[in-house]
Amino acid sequence: MNASLRIVRLANFVAPASGGLRTALRELGKGYLEAGHRPVLVVPGERESDEETGQGRVITLPGPLLPGTGGYRVLTDRRRLAALLQDLAPDRLEVSDRTTLRWTGRWARRARVPAVMVSHETADGVLRTWGLPEPAARRTADALNTRTAHAYTRVVCTTEYAEREFVRIGARNVVRAPLGVDLVERHPALHDPGLRARYARVPATLLVMCSRLSPEKRPGTALDALEALLRRGRRAALVVAGDGPLRARLEQRARERGLPVTFLGHVRDRALLGALQASADVCLAPGPAETFGLAALEAMACGTPVVASASSALLEVIGPAGAVAEDRGEAFADAVERLLERAEPARREAARARAERFGWDTAVAAFLTALDAPVTPVRQAVPRGLS
């Protein structure tokens, strides 16, 4: 039997302006393809399509817009998706949505297809950011996670932080696999003095936030931090790369308070985004429910240190090369100033060195291991089943 496996991957909450999830899906798909497998990604979109790409086959099924999310779509036609899965006959199933697609775990069990669920966020963290009190958020998350752990052969968590909520319920089928960063595409040499001067002239501090502008990301904390720095007499400006349902409200707040904030919306040009990340002094990552933080890691690969929410997993990623802060603007401002006290060459070298621990090759190998799929290209072998 050929060891090349058809790995069917399902994802919801993907939009043209998606950031981290779209990047992770693309890079993992490319890695699976390079390892000799046949990845097939199924995502929702405005219309149906089926194409071969650099990350393997990508099938788009029509999915309705999710109100209030700024463009997210979901796969809601279970009958059609089940029929597609039957036609694709996957050797492995990888699902990146633990809520609306959890039923696919049952489908996989009936079809005797080993399946993994990738936990891209903590359930209790997201529920808290949407306003649910902590005790209720934990109870609800525990119930959801128990069903998820039972439905899938394995649950993949990208950090120890993400793993905790499954350890809490006693799940024994959890494995850890980090995400990564393109260390060639993102590097300190992208620093562009002209681009930097467009938004903040030296000695002003240039802050950047690359984030979806939605409630669970808490983008308002970045504006709070900027305002706190300005009150202290520090010259500073903020550039926001990203879009989402909170954008209009944040823009209005910046106008009313006279804050030097530039909203770029979704930046499709990855070279421009990299230059922006490399030209900033500090990157802000205020999302309290982040389980990895790809945008933050990309900034560090560009030599830019990160201030992240202490409630998130980013301390595991940024380590001593960055700083964490409580989810308040004043605390973020304090952390920014602590980073700026370090000599610029030293802080930029430390950020890059930390990012170099997270190459995509390592991530792909870890995910393939979680799928119990051959990690290196092989021609003839008998694939093992998941235990």
Describe this structure in words.
This protein is of the alpha/beta class. The chain has 15 helices and 14 strands. An eight-stranded mixed β-sheet has the order 3-4-2-1-5-6-7-8, sandwiched between helices. A six-stranded parallel β-sheet has the order 11-10-9-12-13-14, with helices on both faces. Helix 6 (160-168) links the parallel strand 7 and strand 8 (174-176). Helix 1 crosses helix 15, helix 4 runs antiparallel to helix 5 and helix 8 packs across helix 13. The two termini are 19 Å apart. Residues 378-387 have low confidence and may be disordered.
| Helical content (DSSP H or I, runs of 4+) | 40-55%
| Structural class computed from helices and strand pairing | alpha/beta
Order of helices and strands: EHEEEHEHEHHEHEHEHEHEHEHEHEHHH
Distance between the termini: 19 Å
**Can you tell me the CATH superfamily of the largest domain?**
Glycogen Phosphorylase B
Which topology of the largest domain does CATH recognise?
Answer: Rossmann fold
The percent range for strand residues is: 15-25%
- Return the domain count: 2
How many beta strands in the DSSP annotation? 14
Task: Report mean pLDDT, rounded to a whole number.
Answer: 92
Q: What overall form do the CA principal axes indicate?
A: globular
The CATH architecture classification of the largest domain is 3-Layer(aba) Sandwich
Tell me about the largest β-sheet: 8 strands, mixed
Counted by DSSP, the helix tally is: 15
Strand order of the largest sheet: 3-4-2-1-5-6-7-8
The residue ranges in which pLDDT falls below 50 over 5 or more consecutive positions are 378-387
CATH hierarchy class name of the largest domain: Alpha Beta
Organism: Streptomyces edwardsiae
Keywords: Glycosyltransferase, Transferase
EC number: 2.4.-.-
Protein name: Glycosyltransferase
